[in-house]
């Protein structure tokens, strides 16, 4: 039912300067694999094999990563080093990749709208690579959300409880609790002050979106920071129909911050890389 996934990857990654001056932040390696590959693997595991990227200037390395490097492969062919390419070869074999550009940085909502030509009129997943979600041997976060979509057939956002001093960094939801870990959204606020937050349930970078989101985004005026906010468009969907919020099972690292990135690297090295 859902076969497509969109990756908005046009951001500048200023919190990692100077490393991101000439390298996309999505290509920063968590141990031996770039952030964006973890996200694509999660999408493929959920059956989302048509992967689209909304890129920007200086992001060519992302397209190159999901393509064949003939010179490199010829150089290490038949050697013990060839095993290090197994994971990306598997990703390239399973996925179909397409790219479009966001020429002006006008917010996440605008980036999603730019992806319309790749996603078409189908429901689709969205992954923000900054959020690294790990679930061990259990099914990934997107796979959990796809199961829910089959039941509710509406847009779904992933949420988690966050400390009070972190609330202003997220979109925050309020809603009716349907069952443990699942809410029907009644309100959403983008990066509220603590006193204005409707709850401590914050949206993280995993979404399932229905295709009518594009029309809603076209009619959504700039919001917080003068940007087109996906949160505002989702609130319109919630008021006119239904949006679900899902408290996912798994561990999330904010790899858009240095602290979160280092934590993710240590966790992957201790629990995944050395175990392999």
Summarize the structure.
With 276 residues, this protein is of the alpha/beta class.
Verbal overview:
- With about 280 residues, the chain is an alpha/beta fold.
- It has a single domain, classed as Spore Coat Polysaccharide Biosynthesis Protein SpsA, Chain A, CATH 3.90.550.
- Helices cover about 30% and strands about 25% of the residues.
- The protein starts with a strand and ends with a helix.
- About 45% of the residues are buried.
SSE blueprint:
Blueprint: E1 4-8, E2 29-30, E3 33-34, H1 35-45, E4 50-55, H2 60-65, H3 70-76, H4 86-94, E5 96-101, H5 108-114, H6 116-119, E6 124-127, E7 131-134, H7 141-152, E8 155-161, E9 171-179, E10 182-190, E11 201-209, H8 213-218, H9 230-240, E12 243-247, E13 251-254, H10 258-273
Parallel strand pairs: 1-4, 1-6, 4-5, 8-12
Antiparallel strand pairs: 2-3, 6-11, 7-13, 8-11, 9-10, 9-11, 10-12
Q: Please report the first level of CATH classification, the CATH class.
A: Alpha Beta
Judged by helices, strands and strand pairing, the structural class is: alpha/beta
Strand order, biggest sheet? 8-11-9-10-12
Secondary structure tally: strands = 13
What is the total number of structural domains?
Answer: 1
Unreliable runs: none
CATH superfamily: Spore Coat Polysaccharide Biosynthesis Protein SpsA, Chain A
Query: Main beta sheet, described?
Result: 5 strands, mixed, barrel
Helix share bin: 25-40%
Beta-strand percent range? 25-35%
- Overall pLDDT score: 92
Oligomer: single chain
Q: SSE order in H/E notation?
A: EEEHEHHHEHHEEHEEEEHHEEH
Radius of gyration: 18 Å
In the CATH hierarchy, what is the architecture at level 2? Alpha-Beta Complex
Shape: globular
Count of DSSP helices?
A: 10
Please name the CATH topology.
Spore Coat Polysaccharide Biosynthesis Protein SpsA, Chain A
Distance between the termini: 33 Å
